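Sequence of Major facilitator superfamily (MFS) profile domain-containing protein (Heyndrickxia sporothermodurans).
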Amino acid sequence: MKKTIKEQKTVLFILLSNIFIAFLGIGLIIPVMPSFINIMHLSGKTMGYLVAAFALAQLIMSPISGKWVDRYGRKKIIIIGLFLFGIAELIFGLGTHVSVLYLSRILGGFSAAFIMPAVTAYVADITSVQERPKAMGYISAAISIGFISDLASVVLLANMVYVCLFSLRQLLLL
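Predicted 3D structure, token representation.
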């Protein structure tokens, strides 16, 4: 008999963290778009293509990596995906030309394609049929949180800066 979700919470947390990391990569570019447009003189169209490159790469690679998950094992594919994600983010951070940014986004999409099917299969393996829908719901939540985290952090940071500047202004007027 399989263990319950409560008994597997550490494993499930690690798996959900992997999904969170993978989908954090999708929205990574959105908060820095204005800076890239100004600094690298990129168009909005190019930025849209950079966002789409990640998703397209994931779409193309997912069926292949899904087969590899069954052939080589869930853990190995998750580790490869996380390694590729780290490389992709490093390339993105160091990129000074749009072609390097495309390379980073495509590699990031490949990494998400490795992580997603492996984590989903792993969760299916460790949960009972009765608890599987709940666990898959957690995966969906981790995806959503990963995608919106970049946006939320930028909004929170902007609000904090605004409050600090407003407070400083009020202190100077005293």
